[in-house]
């Protein structure tokens, strides 16, 4: 049996106001909590037992997923009393694992959408005899990431945090946030204090002579840490660009949940999701966007690449592009909200309060 740890304790600060009421892994993507996609993909790869390392709004997870049987999984939940970092979170749940000392344990970050071949990563780990194996992906601009150069056999040679000069960029391979640990290695992580697996555990293992193996898998990969990335990830799931067995419907230009109401002449494109009990009025146009449960888009509004929170209302003829509207917010008619705008939960914006001229 292969088992896994899912790190779902982050506060999702960069995603606010989406994460004010909901932990990041539970924000809906393509009609279901994002975590559902990760659990379903793990199960499809043969994983049977998963321990969720929770912290922020920890009480939300278990009522939704229960013991995991509905997904064909056995789920357990461990809550950090104080934030422990990625390495500390892994060590904190170790007592719930069933694997023997030399057996593989998968580790997933709870904010990565990927098409990773999970079985291939486990196979690479086993065939190489590694202590830890890492999923690596290639990016055009690696300056915002940790670089992971490897030798000709795929063995990791260094960990280089966020290079800034051309001389420091020795590879385009980055840590993609999925790992396989030999079970006994997890027990070497210090207990009772914050530990970063990226900045402390991996470099120390490497310096001690441990075998760290990299597997480059350049299928779909997206860090959902920002609102723009989250909206894009949801749209890519609906469009079929990102694989998931948990999308509740056929892939296509739009996903409308059964209890939603969409006017016949409204136009939904670009992987748009209309959540449960949401309403889209006459003549509205929604592209590449997510409307969460109970959101209302009034007639003639235009929504592009945006996320509209649960119970929020967008007034008639209002234009929203590249923005995030928090849960319960009320945006009056004839407003124009452009790239980067965030409206906080339950805020009220009067009619015509925000407008942009055509040259802005």
From TrEMBL:
Q: Which InterPro entries match?
A: GMPPB_C (IPR056729), Mannose-1P_guanyltransferase (IPR050486), NTP_transferase_dom (IPR005835), Nucleotide-diphossugar_trans (IPR029044)
User: Which residue numbers delimit the Nucleotidyl transferase domain?
Assistant: 4-236
Q: What is this protein called?
A: Mannose-1-phosphate guanylyltransferase
Q: Which UniProt keywords apply?
A: Nucleotidyltransferase, Transferase
Listed GO MF terms: mannose-1-phosphate guanylyltransferase (GTP) activity
EC assignment: the record states 2.7.7.13
Please list the residue ranges annotated as the Mannose-1-phosphate guanyltransferase C-terminal domain.
252-334
Q: Which family does it belong to?
A: Belongs to the transferase hexapeptide repeat family.
**Class of this enzyme:** transferase
Q: Which domain of life is it from?
A: Bacteria
């Amino acid at each position: 049996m292969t088992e896994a740890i899912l790190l779902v304790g982050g506060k999702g600060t960069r995603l606010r106001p989406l994460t004010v009421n909901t932990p990041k892994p539970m924000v809906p993507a393509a009609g279901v909590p994002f975590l559902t996609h990760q659990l379903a993909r793990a199960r499809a790869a043969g994983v049977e037992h998963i321990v969720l390392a929770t912290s922020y709004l920890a009480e939300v997870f278990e009522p939704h997923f229960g013991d995991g049987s509905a997904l064909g999984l056995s789920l357990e939940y461990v809550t950090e009393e104080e934030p422990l970092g990625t390495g500390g979170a892994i060590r904190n749940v170790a007592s719930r694992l069933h694997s023997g000392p030399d057996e593989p344990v998968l580790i997933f970050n709870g904010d990565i959408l990927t098409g990773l071949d999970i079985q291939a990563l486990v196979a690479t780990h086993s065939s190489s005899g590694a202590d830890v194996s890492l999923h690596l992906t290639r990016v055009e601009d690696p300056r915002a990431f940790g670089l992971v150069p490897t030798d000709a056999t795929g063995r990791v040679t260094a960990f280089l945090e966020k290079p800034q000069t051309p001389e420091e960029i020795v590879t385009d391979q980055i840590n993609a946030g999925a790992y396989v640990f030999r079970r006994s290695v997890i027990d070497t992580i210090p207990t009772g204090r914050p530990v970063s697996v990226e900045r402390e555990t991996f470099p120390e293992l490497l310096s001690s002579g441990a075998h760290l193996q990299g597997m480059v898998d350049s299928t779909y990969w997206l860090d959902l840490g920002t609102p723009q990335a989250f909206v894009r990830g949801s749209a890519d799931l609906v469009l079929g660009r990102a694989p998931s067995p948990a999308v509740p419907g056929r892939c296509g230009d739009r996903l409308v949940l059964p209890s939603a109401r969409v006017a016949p002449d409204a136009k939904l494109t670009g992987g748009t999701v209309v959540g449960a009990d949401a309403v889209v009025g006459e003549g509205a146009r929604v592209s590449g966007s997510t409307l969460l449960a109970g959101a209302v888009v009034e007639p003639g509004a235009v929504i592009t690449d945006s996320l509209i929170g649960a119970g929020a209302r967008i007034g008639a003829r209002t234009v929203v592009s590249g923005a995030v509207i928090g849960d319960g917010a009320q945006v009056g008619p004839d407003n124009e909200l452009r790239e980067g705008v965030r409206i906080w939960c339950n805020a009220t914006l009067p009619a015509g309060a925000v407008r942009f001229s055509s040259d802005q």
